[in-house]
Specification:
The protein is α/β, with parallel strands linked by helices. It is about 35% helix and about 15% strand. The protein contains 15 helices and 15 strands. The protein has a ten-stranded mixed sheet with strand order 12-11-10-9-8-7-4-13-14-15, with helices on one face. It has a three-stranded antiparallel sheet with strand order 1-2-3. The radius of gyration is 24 Å and the shape is globular.
Length: about 450
């Protein structure tokens, strides 16, 4: 399968199964339509009015050579089937340190941090059992990941400190290495907390939606006051304190700011280099939810962002946009491309009471309860459901050119929109495909290719 598209005069061809990307001229672009089904002499005659026959023959020879190398028209590496490992090896946990929050974000999937329950903080002993669970269930894996999440996890900062120390100690005892990450709204990110996070080399995801009016409309404090000024001050100080490294600013765009490119550039203009602005996923009846009729405008915004990102990189003032970061040479292994985040069997979330769920977005939903960190037995039905929810078991994915990059999309988004994790969220798929085209174009443009007139 091939995917052909054009962006600002550059013609790009993706060989879907191999992941090879080719920048082509008009001649090759035309020939790819016929070269596998039509005899060579007929192709030469067909294009004789438009191209020199020798050029046509030369281009056909190049196409054939690439095909022989497995870089064009390559075969599906799994022949449409995949058997995931039966062995459960968890590599990552999302620890919900707090089911409570000091903000009242209007689009919060967690119900302002409570996940359908009451205010709750994770006790230290529950967190320790969660880390022991991860060590025990990680099998042969050496590198383990833990994300402190909420609600707002810094409302339980002393337990966070306890768990980092415990993880380091147990890691030394068991030959495991922990990487810790914190996701925070930054309101409690004072100098003491910042120093601790820097000293412990903890990666941090910072929530900021962009322009003041956009951020304050969706991320107010309790009582309705805007949080932009307080959040921005904390984030600026913190990012400066770690020399602009080991962080990412993550925002959300909604139907109220479909011109989200301006929000990304607003953050970049303040000197932030590692950015991600994600589309909201919300019930269809929410006034801020995105709709199918928004796709054209949203696609245009990604194109604007692509051009501006390229311009700034060439001008020596680059920034990174998460969804445009792809590695065509040393990217994820094939199993990772087929399964994505690994929710439910490689990645799990733990609620403050120790209950285990497939990921943070399923927390509190009893039908997806995997078990508890205090118990030996796990719910094999839920684990099996997620383990087998790979790309080849999603009918919508089998004919999609982007499948090896998006891995079938987010299970939680699929379940929210379609009632099953096996049917991807269609608008999310459309946006993912657009972002991938932008990312591939950036790779092509940065390789030094000049725009061509056709």
């Amino acid at each position: 399968m091939l995917h052909k598209f054009e962006f600002d005069g550059i013609k790009i061809v993706l060989d879907v199964n191999s992941g090879s990307v080719h920048i082509v001229d008009q001649l090759v672009w035309d020939l790819l339509e016929d070269c596998r089904q039509t005899p060579e002499d007929i192709i030469v005659r067909k294009y004789s009015q438009k191209y020199n026959p020798d050029d046509v023959l030369g281009a056909l020879a190049e196409i054939k050579q690439l095909e022989q190398k497995g870089l064009l028209f390559s075969a599906d590496p799994c022949q449409g089937a995949y058997n995931p490992p039966a062995r459960l090896e968890v590599k990552s946990l999302c620890l919900h340190l707090a089911h409570d929050c000091n903000m009242r974000c209007r689009y919060c999937f967690a119900g302002q941090g409570r996940f359908g329950g009451s205010d709750d903080l994770m006790p230290a002993d529950t967190g320790r059992r969660a880390l022991d669970f991860l060590i025990t269930r990680s099998g042969r894996r050496k590198h383990l990941e833990v994300d402190f999440f909420g609600g707002e996890p810094l409302m339980n900062f002393t337990v966070l400190q306890d768990l980092v120390a415990y993880g380091r100690e147990r890691g030394c005892e068991t030959g495991k290495e922990f990487k810790f990450t914190l996701t925070t709204n930054a309101l409690l990110l004072d100098e003491k907390v910042a120093k601790y996070l820097n000293d412990q080399n903890i990666s941090v995801v910072l929530s900021l939606d962009g322009r003041r009016e956009v951020h304050d409309a969706m991320r107010p404090k309790p009582g309705g006051a805007g949080s932009y000024d307080a959040v921005l001050a904390r984030i600026k100080h913190f990012v400066d304190s770690r020399d602009g490294a080991n962080y990412i600013i993550r925002g959300t765009y909604t139907r109220h700011n479909r011109d989200f490119c301006a929000d990304v550039l607003h953050l970049a203009d303040m000197g932030f280099k590692n950015l991600s602005i994600e589309p909201v996923v919300a019930p269809a009846d929410a006034g801020y939810s995105l709709r199918a009729e928004d796709l054209s405008q949203l696609s245009s915004q990604y194109e604007l962002l692509t051009r501006e990102l390229l311009r700034r990189r060439r001008a020596g003032s680059p920034f990174s946009f998460f969804h445009f970061n792809i590695d065509l040479d040393g990217g994820p292994c094939l199993p990772k491309r087929l399964t994505g985040c690994g929710a439910g069997y490689e990645y799990m979330a733990v609620a403050p009471n120790g209950d285990i769920y497939p990921c943070h977005q399923f927390v509190g939903r009893e039908e997806y309860l995997v078990g508890n960190v205090s118990e030996e037995n796990l719910n094999d039905r839920v684990i099996s459901l997620f383990r087998t929810a790979h790309m080849y078991n999603k009918k919508t994915c089998t004919g999609c050119w982007a499948r090896f990059f998006c891995s079938g999309g987010c299970h939680a988004n699929a379940e929210m929109s379609n009632g099953t994790i096996l049917e991807p969220y269609s608008l999310g798929c459309d946006l993912a495909r657009k972002r991938l085209e932008c990312a591939l174009y950036l790779k092509a443009a940065e390789s030094g290719v000049q725009q061509k007139k056709t």
